[in-house]
Amino acid sequence: MENRLRVLRAERNWSQQDLAERIEVSRQSVNAIETGKYDPSLPLAFRIAELFDLPIEEIFVSPSRRSSKAI
Amino acid sequence: MIARTDASKRYNRRTIWISVAYAIFLIAAVYGFKHDLVGGPLRYVVAVLPALPVVGLFIAMGRYLVEEQDEYVRMLLVRQMLWAMGFALSCATVWGFLDGFGLVGHIDGYWIVVVWYFGQAVGGIANKLMLGDGGC
């Protein structure tokens, strides 16, 4: 799933490891989410959203909205 | 390599202890049978002894899956195990038919565990190829 995680992380000058520790997952998980290879569960997505103090949809791009835009 | 989490460290520790138990039970069983130290129904008990730690390995793996808190790592493990299962069952099926038609020699059933572990390595490579850095 496309997302803004890398941008949000860069704005705060956090490494993947920094973010991983904050949301209590492995650095591998952060990398997989950032690159869109893994879609986080809803609880993890909420944890990420709460960390950045943003609504989920401002971090993760809805696949259905993305495809409707493409049309 | 899959990330080292607290759950994976616990799994590794359990695996080491189980492997030690396996070595002890296997040596004891082989020694007991070789020197005719066991007889009657006890033979069945002693013969099964080395199998118990191997069963323990699967239980340890199940516990690892349950205890792993990192959902992405858990997904990698499940994928790896599915590859291992498919690989081992496929090998067993193909070999079973070849054996059935008398084209190859018979192999003891417990070797399927070794093939399953080899399948885990195949699963790790598949994770690496499909998920890149995030994979195993």
Largest sheet of chain A: none
The tally of helices of chain A reads 5
| Assembly context of the chains | heterodimer
Shape of chain A: globular
Alpha-carbon Rg of chain A, integer: 12 Å
Uncertain parts of chain B: none
Number of helices of chain B: 5
Kindly state the mean pLDDT of chain A as a whole number? Answer: 90
How far is it from the N-terminal to the C-terminal residue of chain A, by CA? 18 Å
Instruction: Characterize the largest beta sheet of chain B: strand count, sense, and whether it forms a barrel.
Output: none
SS content category of chain A = mainly alpha
Secondary-structure-derived class of chain B = mainly alpha
Question: How would you sum up this structure, described in words?
Answer:
The complex is a heterodimer of chains A (71) and B (136). Chain A is 59% helix and 0% strand. Chain A is mainly alpha-helical. In chain A, helix 2 (16-23) packs across helix 3. Chain A starts with a helix and ends with a helix. With 136 residues, chain B is an all-alpha fold. Chain B has five helices and no strands. In chain B, helix 4 crosses helix 5 (111-131). Chain B starts with 5 loop residues before the first helix and ends in a 5-residue tail after the last helix. The mean pLDDT of chain B is 92. Chains A and B meet through helix 3 of A and helix 4 of B.
Main attributes?
heterodimer; A: 71 residues; mainly alpha; 5 helices; 59% helix; B: 136 residues; flat
Short overview:
The complex is a heterodimer of chains A (71) and B (136). Chain A contains five helices and no strands.
Strand-helix topology:
The complex is a heterodimer of chains A (71) and B (136).
Chain A: H1 5-11, H2 16-23, H3 27-34, H4 42-52, H5 63-70
Chain B: H1 6-34, H2 42-48, H3 51-67, H4 71-100, H5 111-131
Helix pairs in contact in B: 1-3, 4-5
